[in-house]
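Kindly inspect the following:
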Amino acid sequence: MTERGEEALSQTRTRLDIGPSALEWDGTTLTITIDERAAPLPFPVRGKLRLTPRGITKQDWPLDFAGKHFWRPIAPICDVECEMDAPNTKWRGEGYIDSNWGSEMLEEGFSYWNWSRASLKDGAGILYDAHTLDGQHRQYALEFDEGGKVQQRAIPRPQNLPRCMVWRMPRETLSKNEPRIISTLEDTPFYSRSKIATDWMGERVEAVHESLDLRKFSSPIVRAMLPFRMPRRAGW
C-alpha cells in the first residue's frame, strides 16, 4: 500500500485509480490491478486479482452506537484468481469483499476490535467484536448463504488467543470452544492477521482472523514508524 496525493486519484462509477494501481468493476467481476513497490525494501509488486462474487449484499451494519462508523460485507463469498508477475505466483481460491466508512477517524471511536471470516459447508460466517472508547461492545455473528442472504446467530463468548511473537499484539476472538493459532500472517505494532482453527456454531472451521488495537495505533512512536511500511508519495 502506498499513500498518494489527491492528484493520483481518479474515480468513475465503475473504476477507481490510485496512482498506477486500479480497481475496476464490469458488473460481474472486480479486477484489481497492482503496480506498487514493497517496503522497506523496494521490490516490485505487480499483478492482477480477479474477484467474482457469488452474491452481493446491500445491508450496512453499524460498528458503534453513535452512528459514526459502518461496515458492509459486500460479497461474503468470492471466487478469486491471483496472477502476479512480481513475485511470480498464481493461485485460485475463495475470498471476500467488504468496506468500512465513517465520519471520524477510527481511533476517535474505538479502542480495539477483532474480526474473523470462515468458509462454511454452505456459505460463510463472519464475527465482529468492536470495542468503543466508552467501553461498549458492538458484536455480530452473521451467517451468509451462497447468494448473500444473511442470518444473525447467537454471539459466542470471547476467547483469548496467544499474543503475537514479535510485537506482542493482543489477540482474542468469539468462539464457543477454545480456538488456536494455525499461523500468523502479519505481526505489526497495532495490527495482526492470523489463520485460526475455531468453530462456527459447532462446526469446526479454519478462519482468517484480524485484531486491530487503535490505542497502539495512536502512539506517536507507532505513527513515526508507519512511513517505513506504507510509503508516502506527494504526487502520482
